[in-house]
Each structure stands twice: as structure tokens, then as C-alpha cells.
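We now fix the convention by which a protein and its fold are recorded. Here is one such record, which you should read through line by line:

>
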Amino acid sequence: MATARTLWKGAISFGLVHIPVGLYTATQESELDFDWLDKRSMDRVGYKRINKRTGREISRENIVKGIAYEDGRYVVLSDDEIRGAYPESTQTIEIETFVPAGQIPFIYLERPYYLAPLGKGAKVYALLREALFQTGRIGIARVVIQTKQHLAALVPAGPGLVLNLLRWADEIRSWENLDLPEEGPRAEGISPREMKMAVQLIEDMAGEWDPERYRDEFKEKILQLVQTKIEADETEAVTSIESMEEARPTADIVDLTELLKRSLEKNKKPSPTRGGSARSGKSKRSA
């Protein structure tokens, strides 16, 4: 296996403690890349810098950067002014506080990175990891990566520490303007019987998290189609990609209790036999 490439080198800092670490990508892009082609010649179609009013192409030296402050009016900023606003890079993951691990809503999580100790930082790295596990807390930190400042969560996961970049509060839209039902088990007239059946259905369908069970079916179908065309020597044929979604008929409105009852019956599991092994508990140290 090839050695992981270090994206960034620095240190975790909290109190007077510094832990030298390297930052490594924890994810990989797996999206399909559709190129634009001229169907007459199969030449690639590129992007041009076009003046949206005149439709004419303009050169790079005539492009400036501006921030709109009202409709049709801009404040123009020079490259030097923009560079002067960049945050100072200290090569440090500066932890500001430790919060309960379950307190950050999923909507704030943006991109994870792995952290690994460098030099003689292994012992202190392990100490921080184990202390976070024991306290059930995660670190909230600021870090500058490639001139951009990020808010981040330092999370223990199995044998390692994960630095998960977070969205800033002003990047999260409020749901105050959404028409949502009131909170609580009595919302919208939910009856105790309906609640009991819904909880039972969830319990019947419960299982362990296994990411390998879930596949990108669209991507797999496209790649299969591509392979079929390659084998058929159709590598220069241009075909339009039709919508792969079929229109779904509108479901009839049914009684909620009856719907839950039918769902429970459909998902009934056979009773476990005597002497069978119980479902193993989920480890708190899983990623």
C-alpha cells in the first residue's frame, strides 16, 4: 500500500500541550466526471470568460474581483487587499474548548481529515485520544489550511483522531420559516397506540451500521454502460442520457394506524432460537 500523503503539518495545541501531527485526507471523491464534447468532432468543449452583458470573451488582465453590496453595485477589491485579509497561518490546531460529543448537530459537519502523530508525539497523541474517550468530549478548534480559516471538531475515533471541519453558524439556514409540526409525542394528534406501533416498527427494522451495504446505483449503472460500449467498440458514439427516474404515482392516503400495522407485519422477524447468540453491542470507539 502506498504511503499516505501528508496534506499539512502542524500541532494540536490545548493549554500548554503541543502535539505534532500530520493531516491526511479521510475521504475521496467518487463522482462521475462528464466531459463536454463537440458531437461533430468529439473535441472537448472548454470554458470561456464571457462578459454576460456583451457576450464577448475578455482577457484575464481585464478581470477584477468585486463584492455586490446592492443590486448592480459592487465594491472592487485588489489582490493585495484580499491577501491582506487572509488569516495568519500558525500551523496549529488551536483547541478553544471541549464540548460533549453528542452536542454538535450533523448539519454542521462538513469534511473529515485524519490526524496522525509525528516525531515523538505518539504518547501525548494517545493521551489526548484516551482522555477524550473517557470524558465523552470532543475539542472545538480553529485551524488555517491553505489561507482559509476553519472551525473544526477534534474527534476520537478508534485508534485515531479525526479533524472534522465544521460549517460556520451563518452558513446554516434557519428552519423558522418552514411549516413544521409542533414537537412532542402528542404532535398532530398522534395517539399512544400509533406511537407504540411506530416505535416497534423502528425496533424491528433496527440493525448495525454497515456502509458496505449501500452502493451508488446510478454510478454503477453508468460505469457498466461505459464498459459495455467499450467492449462493443462504440467509444465514439454520442448518445443522450435519458432520465433514469420513472414517474411515481401518487400514493393513496391511508389510515396511519393501518399503515403502521402493515409495516410491522411486513418487517416481522422470526423469534430467536434458544441458545442463539445475542446481538453484540456497538463499540463506543467505532468511527
